[in-house]
Specification:
The complex is a heterodimer of chains A (about 300) and B (about 220). Chain A is about 70% helix and about 10% strand. A four-stranded antiparallel beta sheet of chain A has the order 2-3-1-4. In chain A, helix 2 crosses helix 9 and helix 7 runs parallel beside helix 10. The radius of gyration of chain B is 17 Å and the shape is globular. The relative contact order of chain B is 0.21. Chain B starts with a strand and ends with a strand. Chain B contains seven helices and ten strands. Helices cover about 35% and strands about 25% of the residues of chain B. With about 220 residues, chain B is an alpha/beta fold. Classes of the chains: A alpha+beta (about 300), B alpha/beta (about 220). At the A-B interface, helix 1 and helix 8 of A face helix 2 and helix 3 of B.
Chain lengths: ~300, ~220
């Protein structure tokens, strides 16, 4: 093991309570940071769900040719305001109808596919585009009528819901950032105090090293490594506790929100989300530790 | 190797060294002697670059100590082995680790440490105690450790500030034999001491300082 890492571990071993204090404060910060990050992710997903939920259905005229339909579909797909364009043919429309009338099978028996128009269904990337897109699609020659799932008196309601969610998300983001910021500042000060104490208690060692020709880098390395170890342990501990807590709560949350994907549904998605959070936390933790330790060691007495 | 030219160093209004000049050649063994407070330690501190003279020049290997940049001082010190009166060993590290730290400071690759550590610890007679901590050693043994650390870096110049100051005659004598041995290997040794018995026994050049002035070269 490198002599500086060995020395840093020696410092931790000799002052376990200082090490625990630093690690726990950092762990608390990163525990809260992980929770806030997940909350921000989930609220964004919630907004996105409500924003894209309303579907526009462009019912096509019976005489629309396959080429014309394909052309319109391509046109819609290349529009950035529009997402998930899907062609629904007459048989598929019948099957959707039958599914929706499953409790009354006679209704299904009375109809044939020919009476259902084929359609192009799509969602919007933002609710505010709805009116403009509907107006444009209505002008297409092969389009007979345009239906909007949120238009029958519900558009305002959905806008209200999205607006309210946006406000809540903004509060979560600002509140979370302030809270995490305050905890981060506390961690920084605790690190600064602990590293300063370490330097004070190691003053004699620092002086001896200085006299035998150790460079500033040599003297500072174990102290900086010690701070980085606090950050490493703090980030991992905080993240692990938050990860386990969220995994424990996830089934209830997913059950409550139903179809709304507030958390990734597959294990790969969960790992990607938490992996990204861990990666960012490592970077922040290391910056915090570096800044705190460098500020503390800058107070080490110069060579003469 | 060492050249003092009209060097004066004051602390407040009192002059620790007052316009002194002398030269020490490469490979010499020189005692710096004089009563307590005469300026012996100040002289060694000037050579080590711990302090700078108020006037005059201190040259070590043709380098003017006062002109050394802050960042160059560590590299300058790495070429000097220093044995301190108060030992200055790292109390929370074992004997072996104390020597290893000095090797790490000069940037010697780790795979060469063992050989060097064993060599110097054998030389000072501490090879079998390499895993002990300084608190488990006697005063003489700690001074040997201090010497081993100084020698490990293979210095051109060995400075010793009262290395036998806290030791009994018998231990002092064994330490002095080690210094003699090191000197025979071609190292320049500058030793501050006020122990006249040692000076008489080891017939070496003496620079005597009294109240900051040289009275005998």
């Amino acid at each position: 093991m490198n002599i500086h890492v060995k020395t840093a571990f020696g410092y931790l071993r000799r002052s376990p309570f200082q090490a625990m204090a630093a690690t726990f404060v950092l762990a608390l910060t990163f525990f809260v940071a992980t929770l806030v990050s997940v909350l921000v992710y989930s609220s964004s997903k919630l907004i996105s769900y409500f924003e894209t939920r309303p579907q526009v259905i462009a019912f096509l005229k019976d005489d629309a040719t396959q080429d014309a339909v394909a052309q319109l579909q391509h046109k819609l797909e290349s529009d950035t305001r529009i997402k998930e364009v899907k062609y629904v043919g007459k048989p598929e429309a019948l099957s959707i109808y039958k599914k929706s009338t499953i409790n009354n099978p006679k209704l299904g028996e009375l109809v044939s596919p020919s009476i259902f128009p084929s359609s192009l269904e799509f969602s919007l990337s933002d609710l505010s585009f709805a009116q403009a897109v509907i107006d444009e699609v209505k002008l297409e020659k092969i389009v007979d009528k345009v239906g909007f799932t949120a238009s029958i008196g519900e558009e305002t309601k959905i806008k209200d819901v999205v607006g309210r969610l946006r406000t809540i998300t903004t509060y979560i983001r600002i509140g979370g950032a302030v809270f995490v910021g305050m905890l981060g500042l506390t961690s920084f000060i605790v690190l600064l105090i602990i590293i300063s104490m370490r330097i004070t208690t190691r003053r004699e060692e620092v002086e001896i090293l200085d006299l035998i020709g150790a460079t500033k880098g040599f003297i500072r390395s174990p102290i900086i490594i010690e701070a980085l170890l606090y950050a490493l342990f703090g980030v991992v501990l905080g993240w692990v506790i938050a990860f386990i807590s969220i995994l424990y709560l996830a089934p209830s949350a997913v059950g409550y929100f139903g179809d709304i994907p507030v958390l990734p549904r597959d294990s790969m998605g969960i790992l990607t989300l938490f992996g990204a959070i861990l990666g960012i936390e490592f970077v922040i933790g290391f910056i915090l530790a570096l800044a705190g330790s460098l500020l503390a060691v800058s107070r080490v007495k110069s060579a003469r | 190797m060492i050249k003092f030219k009209n060097v004066t160093k004051k602390f407040g209004s009192s002059a620790a060294l007052d316009n002194i000049s002398f030269e020490i050649e490469k490979g010499e063994f020189v005692f710096i002697t004089g009563p307590s407070g005469a300026g012996k330690t100040t002289l060694l501190k000037l050579i080590l670059g711990e302090i700078v003279p108020d006037s005059g020049t201190v040259m070590v290997d043709d380098v003017d100590i006062a002109t050394l940049k802050k960042n160059d001082i560590p590299f300058f010190r790495q070429q000097i082995g220093t044995v301190f009166q108060d030992f200055k060993v790292l109390s929370e590290r074992t004997i072996q680790e104390n020597v290893e730290v000095a090797l790490a400071v000069i940037g010697l690759p780790e795979n060469q440490w063992d050989e060097r550590v064993i060599h110097v610890l054998k030389l000072v007679g501490l090879a079998k105690k390499n895993n002990l901590f300084p608190s488990q050693l006697s005063g003489g043994e700690i001074q040997r450790l201090s010497l081993a650390r100084a020698l490990a870096v293979n210095p051109k110049l060995l400075l010793a500030d009262e290395p036998t100051g806290n030791l009994d005659w018998e231990t002092s004598d064994s330490i002095m034999k080690l210094f003699e041995k090191i000197h025979e290997e071609g190292k320049t040794v500058v030793m501050a001491t006020h122990n006249l018995d040692i000076i008489k026994k080891h017939k070496k050049r003496v620079i005597n300082i009294v109240s900051g002035k040289i009275t005998e070269k």
